[in-house]
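Input sequence (136 aa), recorded before submission:
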Amino acid sequence: MHRNEVVALRRGRYEVVLERDESGRWLAHVPSVAGCHTHGRTLAQTRERIREALSLWVEDADTASLVEELRLPQGALADIRRSRLARSRAERERVRATESTSEAARVLVGDLGLSVRDAAALLGLSHQRVQQLVGR
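Predicted structure, token format:
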């Protein structure tokens, strides 16, 4: 057993390298576990199969953390990073918008005494949604 294998076994964490072959199939291997590799038609199938393959070599394969290294052209990897970052920002903004809208609904209905329907019209929401927001 190599030193890398011992470290991986102790931590329950394994690096998995994922890449596509010339036929478009996904290949996966665990560098710290010699001989542990598989392939699949889809990324999901390959992820499932690499865990199965790992279970032939180590006891903690079902609970181990698999850290993926995705090998694609740099442009594609950059696009993936930008997409994830943009979605993360959008989610943070969605949460802020919901909080701001909830506060506005509470002020309109609670402090100013407007009806739920009037508050909904001002906020551009359904009266049901305003009722949900005010009820929080």
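Checked by second reader. The chain has two domains: 3-71, 93-135.
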